[in-house]
Amino acid sequence: MAQANHGEHPAATVLDNLRYQHDWTDLQILTHSPVDNSPLPRPLISGLPPRRLYLHPDDQIEIIKSHPNPLERIPDTPVIEWVLPTYLAEKWTLRSFASVFDSMPPQASTSPDRAKRILLAAVHDDSTVVYYFMHDGIVKPRQN
């Protein structure tokens, strides 16, 4: 993993990308955990996307079962997402990813034992940003 101050520049680049290219709101760069105010291993971004980015398969089933009219559109209320800004060329280990997941607050979910998830933002040298979902543990695949 890179030096401690290596995460500051990609955080600003990713924050701008989320705000101006993807219309996220309530964006903030966090350097300390909102749970216990301890320093984070890397700066994280929290924000609200314009629509829900991911729906856990168990939550998807519950929403479909509880929705009264199957022909109506299912509500798509966005939730706060956590983003880990990195450079594409950085070398990460499972231990360094685990330290990031350990420093995060629990996910807002119907199930308290649900695996945490983060949006990994990889910034290339030309400022292109690519996003990948990462889960802390094994998650069953979505039903399409």
Q: What can you see in these coordinates?
A:
The chain is an alpha+beta fold and 144 residues long. The protein is built from 3 helices and 5 strands; from the N terminus they run H-E-E-H-E-H-E-E. A 5-stranded mixed sheet has the order 1-2-3-4-5, with helices on both faces. The longest helix is centred in the N-terminal third of the chain and has 14 residues, at 8-21. The termini are far apart. Residues 1-6 have low confidence and may be disordered.
Ranges with pLDDT <50 over ≥5 residues?
1-6
Number of helices: 3
Radius of gyration: 16 Å
Order of helices and strands: HEEHEHEE
Helix content: 10-25%
Major β-sheet strand ordering: 1-2-3-4-5
Biggest sheet character:
5 strands, mixed
- The tally of beta strands, per DSSP, is 5
Mean of all residue-level pLDDT scores: 82
**Which descriptor suits the 3D outline?**
globular
End-to-end Cα distance, whole Å, is: 36 Å
Label the structural class.
Answer: alpha+beta
Measured by DSSP, the beta-strand proportion falls in 25-35%
Summarize this structure as a short list of keywords or feature phrases.
alpha+beta; globular; five-stranded mixed beta sheet; 24% helix; 144 residues
Per-chain topology:
Elements (H helix, E strand, L loop, with lengths): L7 H14 L3 E8 L6 E10 L8 H10 L14 E7 L6 H10 L13 E7 L5 E7 L9
Parallel strand pairs: 3-4
Antiparallel strand pairs: 1-2, 2-3, 4-5
